[in-house]
Design brief:
By secondary structure, the chain is an alpha/beta fold. The protein is built from 6 helices and 10 strands. The strands form 2 sheets. The chain has a 6-stranded mixed sheet with strand order 5-4-6-7-10-9, sandwiched between helices. Strand 4, helix 3 and strand 5 form a beta-alpha-beta unit. The termini are far apart. One of its GO terms (biological process) is methylation.
C-alpha cells in the first residue's frame, strides 16, 4: 500500500522497521520516520496516555529537562518578547519559566488548553517541547506555527532524533504509542528549507528555527 509522508507529502517511502505493535516507514525525501495512519491511537486512547503524565512547575527535574530548550532560546530573545507554548500538556511548565524571565506567554493544547483563539495572533517565539513526535500531520501543523511568527521570530522544537535502524530497534522512544513521527537532523533541515527558515541545533534533541 502506498503511504504518504505526513511531513513532506511524498509517496516515496520505504519500510524502516517493525515490531510486534507497529510498522515504521521512512521517507526518502525528508527522512522522516513515521507510523502508518491505520496504526495510530484514536483520540480517546491518546488522551488516556497523556492523562498519566505528571508534570509540574514545582518539579526541579522537569525544569532541568526543559532548560535544554529554554536556555538557548531565551538568550536569543529581546526583553519582553511574547511567546506561545504549543502542546503545553496537563502541567504547563515551560510557559511559567519564560514568564518568570519576563516573557508574556499564551498556551495551547488540543486536550488541556483548547482555546484556538491564541492561534490567531503573532508571536516573537513559539515552543513545542515533546510535541512534534505526536503530530499526525507535522508538515501542516509546523507550517501553521511558523506562519504565526513575527519576522525574525523563533520556533523552538524539542524532540529526540532518529539514529540508524539498529539503534531505532532498541530505542525507548518508540515504545510510547502516542509517538508517531520521528525526526532526524536531516528531517529538521528539510523542514527549515521548506519553510524558508534557518535552523540551529544548540543542544541534544533541540532545534531552533528562525523566520527570515
Amino acid at each position: 500500500m502506498m503511504l504518504t509522508c505526513p511531513l513532506c507529502t511524498s509517496t516515496d517511502t520505504t519500510h524502516f522497521h517493525c515490531d510486534h505493535r507497529r510498522d515504521y516507514q521512512r521517507c526518502r525525501c525528508c527522512a522522516l520516520v513515521f507510523v502508518p495512519p491505520a496504526q495510530r491511537l484514536d483520540a480517546a486512547a491518546e488522551r488516556a496516555v497523556y492523562d498519566q503524565h505528571v508534570n509540574s512547575p514545582d518539579d526541579a527535574g522537569y525544569r532541568r529537562f526543559l532548560s535544554r530548550l529554554f536556555d538557548p532560546l531565551q538568550r536569543r530573545l529581546a526583553p519582553g518578547a511574547r511567546g506561545l507554548d504549543f502542546g503545553a500538556g496537563p502541567g504547563p511548565t515551560l510557559s511559567v519559566m519564560f514568564e518568570e524571565a519576563g516573557h508574556p506567554m499564551a498556551i495551547y493544547d488540543p486536550f488541556y488548553a483548547p482555546d484556538a483563539s491564541v492561534l490567531d495572533r503573532r508571536y516573537a517565539f513559539i515552543t513545542a517541547t515533546e510535541v512534534a513526535e505526536h503530530l499526525f500531520e507535522p508538515g501542516r501543523e509546523l507550517a501553521r506555527l511558523a506562519s504565526l511568527l513575527e519576522p525574525g521570530g523563533w520556533l523552538g522544537l524539542m524532540t529526540k532524533r532518529v539514529a540508524g535502524p539498529e539503534a531505532f530497534a532498541g530505542w525507548h522512544y518508540i515504545l510510547d504509542p502516542t509517538h508517531v513521527c520521528f525526526f532526524s537532523e536531516a528531517s529538521l533541515e528539510w523542514l527549515a528549507g521548506h519553510l524558508d527558515m534557518r535552523v540551529e541545533f544548540p543542544a541534544a534533541d533541540v532545534a531552533l528555527l528562525q523566520r527570515r
